Amino acid sequence: MDAPSPPGPPSDASPRTGRQGGRRLFAVALIVLAAVIAALWLDTRGRIGATQEELAKRLRDIETESREARSLARQAQEGLRDAQAKIGALETRFAESQNQQLALETLYQELARNRDEWQLAEIEQVLAIAQQQLQLSGNVRAALLALQLAESRLSRSDRPQFLPVRRALARDIERLKSLPALDVPGLSLTIDRVVASVDALPLAFDERAERPASGKAAKTVPQTEEGFFARFGGEVWKELRQLIVVRKVESPEPPLLAPQQAWFLRENLKLRLLNARLALLTRDEAGYREDLRVAQGWIRHYFDVRAKASQGALAQLKQLSSASVSFEPPSITDSLEAVRAFKSRRERSN
User: What angle, 0 to 180 degrees and rounded to 10, lies between the N-to-C axes of helices 140-157 and 163-177?
Assistant: First the structure.
């Protein structure tokens, strides 16, 4: 037998229950959706806030960097203006330095030209003085020194335009060096030594005259045995013998000279020797030899030739007489003409 089925709901209640369940589900879905939207909104809001904060921080950093960049730009602009001002000053100074350099080059050229002219004028003056020394006194040494001085100054300048002048100077220097050397200072010193020894030369009369014999003992008469008048007469006779001296001269050559005449003799001998030295300096051969000859004759005639001082003076005078002091004075006209020709060419070119 079939069981009886439970009684079912009424037919109109089933659709209502389904509608209520659907509403509940929709409400739950709305709530879930709202919760999700709220969660998403909150999360989005948090992210937006963080983004805003990050953006604000970035903006602040960018503003700080912008301020620093503006400050650096201002400093760069100021530095650029300073650099432009300095460049302008440097350009001005460079232009001034170029003008000064041009002026200095012009001045240097003028000074170099004037220096060359002064140097040539000085060398010409030195050569003219050397030429006068050769012509007047025959002083070859002084002329040689002048030529060597001129050549050394031209060699220090090291200018090729001076080569003709230097060649002429070299020729004149070789010509003067080839001349026979005469020791004028040594001969002059020897004459001075003879002049200094004149006062020590002994006179011939003083040495050759007889002297009283010193070895003979004078006989003395005992004064005790003579009377007063005898002693008085002896003293008077002794004084008279001292007033008058008789000497025997073996040869009439040595003259008897008073002290004043002996002084004049020595002074005249000195003057003769000094004249010989002057003739030596002026290269006067005849006057030089004549003065030495007269001096030797006076020493042999008036002075004792046996004395050592007289023999030394005669030997020195003989040595002086053997020297030849005359020569044909050379000329340095080549050097003078070369300098003057160079100066005239420079004047024409200027």
Answer: 150
